Amino acid sequence: MRKKVMIIDDDKVFLEELNEVLISGGYDVVTVNDPVLAFNMVDKTKPDVILVDMKMPSMSGFEVANELKNFLGYDFIPIIGMSGFYRDNDISLMNMCGIQKCLNKPFRPLDVIYNIEKVMG
Amino acid sequence: MKKEDINTLVVEDNPGDLRLVSEMLRESRIPVFRVTHAGTLEDTLKILGKEKPDIILLDLDLPDSCGLESLREIVKLAPWIPIVVLTGVDDENLGIEAIQNQASDYLVKGKINVGMLVRSIRYSMERKVMEEVLRRDREMLEKLVNEKARELLNVQKGMEQAKRLTDIGTLAATVAHELRNPLAVINVVSYNLKRKINDPDLKKQIHIIENKVMESDQIINNLLFYSRLRKPFFENVNIQKILSEVIELIKFDTKNIKKARITAKCDPIMNTAFEADPLQLKELFINIVNNSFDALADKKGAIEIIAKPDINKNGALIYIKDNGSGIDSENLSKIWEPFFSTKSKGTGLGLSVCRQIILLHNGTIDIKSEKGKGTTVIVGLPCKQIFFRNSS
Ligand SMILES: Nc1ncnc2c1ncn2[C@@H]1O[C@H](COP(=O)(O)OP(=O)(O)O)[C@@H](O)[C@H]1O
Ligand SMILES: [Mg+2]
Q1: Which of these CATH numbers, 3.40.50.150, 3.40.50.2300, 1.10.10.10, 3.90.1800.10, describes A4-120?
Q2: Looking at the whole model, is its pTM more than 0.80?
Q3: Nearest ligand to the C-alpha of residue B347?
Q4: pLDDT tens across B135-165, in order?
Q5: Which residue spans within A4-108 are E strands per DSSP?
Q6: Distance in Å, CA A105 to ligand 2 centroid
Q7: What is the ipTM of this complex?
Q8: Is residue B57 within a helix (H) or strand (E), and if so which, with residue range?
């Protein structure tokens, strides 16, 4: 069965292009441009893995992940962060929010696929 | 002649006046006056070239000079000798002018008695001594003030530089982080493009784009690294050890060892502990040595590091010498500026960071370079960090 990936990012172009990468990689993709809408979409689409941009204007990746894991009970969905501002000391915060991995921008698309497979075991 | 005797030079061309003054001086028992005599300015200056009288009694009108001119000439030659000016009865004003021109006192001829003369001479001599002391004090004070001013100026310059670097650091960090987002997009778009096309030429060009994205990312990493400059955390470090760690790190990049031979010679004394921030010292030397490697281009070169004690300053001098391209003399003053670089991929922050680290360590850094021959960077580091040791 095809795996379903949700991408949450405020950059529309990035969203579309990453969508294309993942579709070509054999995934079903749900894109979310506004993180506020993500929770509803998770309920509706039940993704197997979530990719989330860490820095968005309305909500940070931390907040999105924290809400999903600690308030909505989606602690079984692995989350991968994407950040241009990755700092070592965020690791514990990432763990607390259930973010399993953070990809440093600019990453190679193949790294995304590699890490999706890895977090899903 | 006893020590308290007062050597007196009487400058007077009128024999009558001369005899009068000489007699009065002879009358004094304590102190005893030893009198020399000159009748012209020329003679006076000649005598002053050989002898150092304790006091000069000066009649301003001489055959070869008149008025204040005589006084000025003598003061110019012997500013340390007190001068009592003798004026005619109608010349009180001249006397006052004489005092304004460095005479110690003036007496009106024909109104002098022994007591007055002796008192005036003693008073003039004492005053000269006081003046001398004051002058020396003032010079010392001036020197101290100048030094202090220079020090403050340096501190201020340092602070300005530090502030600018902090600003640059914040700016660099922000810009760097923001740039990563568009770079990420470019990368993903390139990937998608590459999948869709078969033209090998186009594929090659897209590959170039991907490489350049990686290169840009590397520049960003450098910028972030440089912007992380912080207050040093001083501990006891071994400079020799730090230098060998730096060399190890640099040899890790194999293209470096192919290019040059690098050696380090440390005076055994350098095993003593230095108070420094080990990470910052490493950063410092890595930047310097990296510059040396860059300067070697592709020719076979040599980089020599020599560390020896700086006894005078209770510290160390570390020389990093290369036989690379050298620096254009017109660039020598610019290389310290943030963002000045002659390299296509340089950030131009290396040396500004070096200088900043050196400033934080109360050290010195100098660069001597000759175009085409090579460059030597000289780092001076104090052994102890007295001023900052206990501040956090
Ligand atoms: N050892 C050296 N030999 C020749 N040129 C040097 C050397 N060190 C520094 N420079 C000059 O100083 C400039 C500034 O150096 P730096 O601040 O480290 O920035 P960058 O290395 O990024 O250019 C260099 O671009 C180079 O022109
Ligand atoms: Mg450099």
Answers
A1: 3.40.50.2300
A2: no
A3: 1
A4: 888 888 878 877 777 777 777 777 676 666 6
A5: 4-8, 28-32, 49-53, 79-83, 99-104
A6: 25
A7: 0.87
A8: strand B55-59
